[in-house]
Amino acid sequence: MSSERAIDLVKNELPVDDESMVFSGDVRTGLVLVDIVNGFCTVGAGHLAPKVPDKQISRMVDESTRLARMFCEKKWPVFAFLDTHHPDVPEPPYPPHCLAGTEEANLVPALQWLENESNVTLRRKDCIDGFLGSFEKDGSNIFVDWVKKHQIEAILIVGICTDVCVLDFVCSALSARNRGYLTPLRDVIVYSGGCATFDLPLHVARSITGALAHPQELMHHVGLYMAKGRGAKVVSEVSYAT
Ligand SMILES: [Zn+2]
User: Fold this and answer.
1) What is the predicted pLDDT for the residue at 17?
2) 234 CA distance to ligand 1 centroid (A)?
3) What's the domain of life for this entry (predicted)?
4) Coil/strand/helix, residue 58
5) Which residue of 17, 57, 204, 223 shows the fewest CB atoms closer than 10 Å?
6) Options 1.10.10.10, 3.30.830.10, 3.40.50.850, 3.30.470.10; which CATH number does 3-240 get?
């Protein structure tokens, strides 16, 4: 079966009925950006960066930038995770990536202005799941504190990778919400056009010892489906109504 036919089959058997989302300002909403750093998004920036221009990743960066501008104009809360690793601490099964102090661990050029915005919280994390990566040594959690400080009722999540760091964060946030750690948070919303994943087609994976195939379109869809199954809302359009 061709990979296109496999995608159609999966989308038919595991549909994600996308909704659209219109902000009105009535619900206190926070934007969460997951790992939109050079090491995952900028062509040639490292072991886990795209090797050639990638449509899905470019769209994710454009849409995330659009939403970040919208939130910053209104001074609404924004939380950005930046995958950042110490060179002596590997993260299996991945090769070294996003090492601290390198450009790989910094926001992509289109989002670097976020570093100077007063409504933005930046969090460097050295693990896949940003919720776990938000714990401090004293047991407090920067993400939990951010939700409570701003009394956030909904989070809108964008970033990379849909089926890895985005999904793990979504699952943990939902479990934490269900256990009452994130009051008053109600909705965990994933914007499909603002998410992307990497591409490692089967024929390429077969030529790399130990590599797991990871066809981009398929795994992006699976990530959204899993998030929805855990209780997230998946939306395909996000706009603001005045
Ligand atoms: Zn990492």
Assistant:
1) 76
2) 24
3) Eukaryota
4) helix
5) 17
6) 3.40.50.850
pLDDT above 70 covers a percentage of the chain that reads 99
| Whole-number average pLDDT of the chain | 95
Contact present, 157 and 169 (Cβ < 8 Å): yes
Give the tokens for residue 188. 């965990």
pTM score, two decimals?
A: 0.96
| 133 closest CA partner among 162, 174, 169, 160 | 169
For the chain, give the number of residues: 242
Residue 132 has pLDDT above 70, yes or no: yes
Rounded-to-integer distance, Cα 141 and Cα 17, Å = 33
What is the whole-number distance in angstroms between the Cα of residue 12 and the centre of ligand 1?
32
Q: pLDDT of 98-113, one tens digit each?
A: 999 999 999 999 999 9
For residue 98, report the distance from its CA to the centre of ligand 1, in Å: 7
* Residue 126 Cα to ligand 1 middle (Å): 6
> Strands, DSSP E only, in the chain?
19-23, 29-34, 78-83, 120-125, 154-160, 187-196, 233-240
Which pLDDT score, from 0 to 100, does residue 21 have? 87
Question: Cα of 84 to ligand 1 centre, how many Å?
Answer: 6
Task: Specify the amino acid at residue 146.
Answer: W
**Centre of ligand 1 from the C-alpha of residue 187, in Å:** 26
Q: Do residues 227 and 167 make contact, with C-beta atoms less than 8 angstroms apart?
A: yes
Residue with tokens 């959204």: 224
Distance 169 CA to ligand 1 centre (A): 13
Give the number of other CB atoms < 10 A from CB of residue 235.
Answer: 18
